[in-house]
Amino acid sequence: MKKKMKFNTKAIHGGQILDPAYNSVMTPIYQTSTYAQSSPGKHKGYEYSRTHNPTRTNLENSIASLENGKYGLAFSSGLAAIDALLKTLKPGDEVISTNDLYGGSYRLFKKIFQKYDIRFHFVNMEDIKNIEDSITKKTRLIWLETPTNPMMNIIDIKSLAKLSKKNNILLCVDNTFASPYLQRPLDLGADIIIHSATKYIAGHSDVIIGAIVINSKSLHKRLSFIQNASGATPGPMDCFLTLRGIKTLHVRMKRHSENARKIANFLKRNSKIGKVYWPGFTNHTNHIIAKKQMKDFGGIVSFIPKKSNFKTAKKIAEKLKLFTLAESLGGVESLCCHPASMTHSSITPEDRKKSGLVDSLLRLSVGIEDVDDLIEDLKQAIG
What we know:
alpha/beta; Aspartate Aminotransferase, domain 2; Aspartate Aminotransferase, domain 1; 2 domains; seven-stranded mixed beta sheet; five-stranded mixed beta sheet; 14 helices
């Protein structure tokens, strides 16, 4: 039955086990640090909550089920998940990354792991030849986001998976923007999926949590060791809140995508907006690829005012009422972010400009409110 479940059913039942104590329908919050043992080393599979926790186990199983993966691992944040993955590399190893990526990932790559002689090459991945040209004998990992943050570029996962397998390189996809409802990279040939589950998976802006999903037993063993040894694990309350959020993921993502479509088209028609970034437009560079590998185009829309300067963007952001000016994304409420000064400020201005991230760009995380109200809010803010 589990193998035949469709996504909407998996969101509610996938990977879940009824609590053996009282058969509670919802996974209980096992708010405990340790577990009684009947004899030294004899226990029911749980000895210390950094290593394992029943609430976390159900969450890890649930996320793995959503991504059609065999193994799920939960971490205290998306960056903690990335940190754990990078710890599988050795000095001298090389990573090829998209040049348009989340500022926190870039900071972790450049400011932390580069010090340990792990080399990072940032390239435009919309053209696969750029990746081919960057592969060396030391390349161990290809890292991508699709859609990218915040430029909404689309990268061909299936083609990149063929290239990575041909060269015996692991392919990791940060699937945060799409969520497993819209895109499942393992099915397209990727080896590893990373999530900032804080965003769409949890979906209510009330938890910080990350996840990794994989199929490889040996990689799961290595990552489980790092998860326990480094200790960046989420608490049971965070896991419970995320499980609660997952149960409505399919409902929320459908509305996020519907609302974003209407807002993207509104912005495109607005005479005071210069450029709109949304992969659902037929003239988007990789629209055809997005259509093939995604169920819909997601809830994120980025745009640049026609008067392309920071002052204009700042004025719009400050005048918004329903869109809250805040970092993060993927919650039920709509947010507006100025990436250059907020989420991507750790990237140098020169590198931001190379990827098209100008100081006048605003990123909208379109929530699930009534879309007419959201459009009215944008109208009054844009003027």
